[in-house]
Amino acid sequence: MARAYESPIPPPDPEPVLNAIPAVNGKHHDHDDQELFRAVATGYAPCTCEDDDETPATGPVDLERIRRAVREILIAVGEDPDREGLLETPARVARMYAEVFAGLHADPRTHLQKTFTQQHDEMVLVKDIEFASCCEHHLVPFLGKAHIAYLPAGKVVGLSKLARVVDGVAKRPQVQERMTEEIAEMIMTELQPRGVGVIVEATHMCMTIRGVKKPGTITVTSAMRGLFKTNPMTRSELMALVYGAK
Ligand SMILES: [Zn+2]
Fold it and tell me: Most buried among 97, 118, 180, 193, using CB within 10 Å?
């Protein structure tokens, strides 16, 4: 039987008898578990600076903060975060999130800024670009493939750069619809082609392991710009190349 574990963070005290430790240099700083234990042991409340605010991350990932949060989740679901198998889990999950959300700290547009001039006015299509992203509603993965086509207007980009754009956009808390639009928009803005067509197919773990529990469901989204939007012939050429002629 799993034992219920108490969080080291004391519940709000109804009698405010503890003396507050002032914020260090009047500045905001992170509280570690040690500080909280010390606070409990000495009868001093943890410092008054508001560490639990909703400040969005602006810089590199705060691994220590994720670690504490994951430990809290384990306690909250009734687990024992101090049992052997879970000891390293919070820190491991923190490193994983840093990797999975690395796209928050990079601008995928930079991959499209090195272009070269090429008189190729037919469609360029990169098919089956595999990606792994994380659904922002449930923080579980969605996995799939992106197909990207564009009709150059004198400017082309290295083919691998299109795959890098997909990766950069995928490595953020995402929804598939927005991801599809973002890729199309970036290519449209940076390459100024005559048209862009982006098709994304993915399976969502949040539909597999929870909720409706429908494994095998594939969600397809597309974003068409320029000639891919206005010219049915161009669009059906793309569909034929991606899915095979019908
Ligand atoms: Zn979801």
Answer: 193
